[in-house]
User: What shape does this take?
Amino acid sequence: MLRPQLPLNALRAFEAAARHQNFTRAALELCVSQAALSHQIRSLEDRLGVVLFHRLPRGVALTEEGARLYPVLNEAFDRISACVGGVTGGYREVLSVGVVGTFATGWLLPRLPDFDVRHPDIELRLQTHNNRIDLAGEGLDLAIRFGDGDWQGQVCTPVLDAPFAPVCAPARARELHDPGDLARVPLLRSYRADEWSRWLQAAGVAEMEARGPVFDSSLTLAAAAAGGAGVALLPLRMFEQDLAEGRLVQPFAQTVELGRYWLTRLRSRVESDAARRFREWLGS
Assistant: This one.
């Protein structure tokens, strides 16, 4: 079978840019300047006679023609890398995952040795965040975040339920006998403004107003609560060790569902073999 002369560098540039949906990150991966990468992609578009990307203010998006070409090239380059790695014995597929910090420390990190044993050919690269993340802009394959699972343009798979309840230092807990006592202590809050109001309503004290400092991370909320700064509303499953060892105490049994943890990926990207196996491992 005769094959056309393939512009391999341009195809590689296109595949990296499509995977990252960002020319800058693709150029960094390929160790070329952004101008050189843009030139290669323009040359490929001219050669094919089609536009492969919509150029956006932040990143790029595939056109219909680009979306047809990308999965074929992505699979082809993955197979070439796997084959070459099999010959040399050194191939590991890289999977970049953004993880909300609470889930990373409270659930994922203790279980990573199991993933490595089951999937030694996958190299995980973890990037923690505070639940605000740009998958395309940050060049991530997947992200684990907390919420309701409604993120536009993303495939969202539920990972873990996470009931919330008030927690605090042991000395603070001894001052609390019923939910009404919370009116006399600082209520440490997250940037999600309705969390305390929903718990207070479930506990029968809906008229109480939550007053206290605001934090952008459940980890800093927990540290402040353990230090005696007030009472924090936290996902209990992420702080089981702190509760078991007595650094934090749950003064009231009432819990409330405020969301769950989700694994997300861009709908415009084909799920790689490594991403599929990571998703299945999370659900096992």
